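Wait, can you check?
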Amino acid sequence: MKQTLRYIRLISPIIVSAITVIGSPAFAQTVEATSPTPDSEISPSAPDAVDDENADTNEILVTGSLIRNAAAKAQAPVLVLNADEANLRQANTAQDLLRDLPGAVAGIGSAVNNVGVTGTSTVNLRGLGSNRNLVLLDGNRVVPSDLTGVTDLNNIPLALIARTEVLTGGASTTYGADAISGVVNFITRQDFVGAEISASSQITQEGDGAYQRIDLTLGADFADGRGNAVLSIGYQKSDPIYQSDRDFSLFNVSSFTGQEIGSGTGVPSTISIAGTRLNGLQVDAASGALIPAYRPYNFNTLNLLQTPFERYNVYGATHYDLGDDVTFYMRGIYSHNVVTSVQAPSGSFGSTFVIPLSNPYLPVAARNQICSALSLNAAQCAAASSAGSLADPNYRTVRANLFRRAVEVGPRIFDFTTDQFDARAGFRGAISDSVSFDVSGAYGESRNTQNVEGYIRISRLADALLATNPVTCLSGNPGCVPVNVFGDEGSITPEMAQYLTADSSSFVKTSLGQIRGVINGDLGTSLPWASDMIDFAFGAEYRSYTASQAGDELSSSGDLGGNTGAILPIDGRYDVVEAFSEISIPVIQDMPGIENLLLNGGIRYSSYKIFAPDSPTFNTTTWKAGGEYSPVRGLRFRGGYQRAVRAPNIGELFSPSQRTLSSLNSDRCAGGAPTTYPILRSVCLAQGAPASAIGFIPELTSGLANNTSGGNPNLSPENSDSYTVGLVIEPSVWLDGLSATVDYYHIKIVDAISAPSAAEVYGLCFNNLTGSSAASSECTQIRRNPVDGSLLGSDGVPGVPTPLTNAGKYETAGIDVGVNYRRSVGMVDLDLSFNGNWTSYARYQATPGSVNRDCAGFYSVSCGSLQPEISWTLRTTLIYDAVSLSLLWRHIGPMEQEPLSIATGGLACCGYDRIAAYDLFDLTARFELADRFTFVATAQNLFDRDPPFVGANIGPRNPSFNQANTFPSTYDALGRRFAVGVTVTF
């Protein structure tokens, strides 16, 4: 609460300034300075005017350039989504607005619930990673939300957004490092006067997943129009939807057998005994004997298709003209949001325990089997079963890997609470009639706290298993309660559960401080064959990033059963100082065959300082060059080339090495294969599997394997070269209302900071086994559980190493197409807006020895979020007076199982190796009354299209893009939904 109050105090001057002017006469008006969308862009929305970022001047700042000019046009493709589109979609968060962008792939959002959930929402342009694009607010960075430097879209105040501009391709020269794949620039409304209340409600056809949102925006002029202040307050809340609430996700289905599958960590316990043939056997609930595993656990019943979300946000801004040439401005944002993830119960996921043969809950039949496996005769077994203390000479123990789901404890509940503020203040004005300046400073902080309920403590389970009677533990620890893990569901009593469980918490805190100054204008001269002046911009910028991570004693210990890894302390910082400049030169204008010929360029020099012992410092230079040629009015050719960079983020630099979980379809060492293939047997043994486990190594649980990864303080920046070549057509002479763009793009990243997937490292060993494989580093770097030989276990089993290096390479290319057409048809106005993408390829190579993998149009555990070759959106709107009817068509092209994954892991069965083209339609009706009242009703997924069914283990599980037998971040897993919204303006 103290932290929250501190944030509120930081923005309270903005709030007070807005409230104090509400009583002025100007409050009764609704006047917003507007300017049209830049004529070079495609805006998939109705042709309403939108507020310009700098509506108090006659200049436009195009996303991707620092040149301010009313005639400015982008030389790189920029997609514009105005507020009208957000209203028609009934978008609740910025991620809702961006997830369907052609050419982008789904980022982390409300459909990611299991492994990989972070409580944040991200955008991923061109499929190159959320950490390779920037999210801006009015052309400026906001504080990142995690160790990777990405911005949480949950904190963007949609009610104040006039339009969203999406630039794809390198933009590091304009905005600095990280803008390798592009930027998303949210531009706020300026000079708002009046009051606006908007409310919306959404629910699925099944009656679940309710979503409510309400926003109040107040604005007024003051000081005789020399200043303006605006305040916006918002609240929204969504309810959960469980996977068990939909037929397609009731049970996990194997993508390769078509059979129902579940987790090997279930009830009753599954056990592997070190040094014996008793591997991967489950306790029979009826007889107590150890038999082949027969009852996998269905964790779908508790996992979510939509994570619940609650947010409060406040945005305030003001500007005041100190004189004719200088304006003071400031803005502040505060957001408090909570994302909840619910996961199946905790338990022992292969941890190794010492269990006495005299454990009071060990079934007699199982004990007899263990005695036989240990070569104990009946008398020795009977004596061991009755040994009551460590001093008894007949006391015997076994080391066992235990898989037991603690269903009696209930689900694991993760509450991710984020408090974020970001404030900026500065001065802008005129140096002369043709030159202006803008100097500002900003500071922001974000704190994401993770509170976890429902975990069991492995150390306490170990203590509780070391018992010879049902009352006390051999350790003598006070409060220790012996636990029955060998019985069926219910064998763990409430008293036992209370001893085993504990809550934990951890946090990630980030900050960003910025100082920036820009001078731009024109040189007051032009070339002889041009009428427009030469424009320029130059400036300097300083940024300081900090990030830290810490957890309480429990979360830092790695003692939580089923956790992906300990929350280890991280504390890092780096600073960057930059100088930059841009120039735009009209070369020839208004001549026969050359309506306009313009060239532009830019350069940025950056110097980084890493605050860590022995860490290198590095300097980078980025640059761009481009231009446009218009032979006649309405026809324009454009293109550009950019050298961009991405500096390593704090997580990549400072994260300590630790064990986590990663996707892996299957393990060749599992089952009987090593018993008939000597080379395979030798490799499994060389990786640490005990000889007694050969033939009995258990298969992976839920398609996940242990892997070891961490940061690397010696990383250097990535380098990217990208270029675009395009055509803009605006034939107002012969077809008024039509505008179209076609752009080819190509992005190549070298020295990419990347880690190979577990599947790739595993494949380096197992894809081409030879007689020398058992001695090769490719094979011996993989380390197995010393008890059962598996790649799982929470007691320091490294599994598959996936180190971070600068050895990666990314390359993607494709074509973007945008078409707008607006005309009157009889009594109605017709508005057509099309945006489409064709991705030629999306290649990724983690290391020089790895496969150069192409994931465009393919899915596998080694490809990330789905990237179709073809995708588009088409909005068709009919407007009659105050009533409009709008249909949005969203198309995702067909997908296939990645050929390489077929060669190494097998073809998926049952048609799960292909996904047909997928089309969704949203229908919206809107009624407007005198610019004061707007009512919107939307039916999303109008025809109730189910998501494609491909099983649960064919795609990536970390993050969990493949879950619920589909890809719910890409396809609609919720079904038909209805939304209504009302906006009232005073």
About this structure: Residues 152 and 170 are 21 Å apart (CA to CA). The two ends are 34 Å apart (CA to CA).
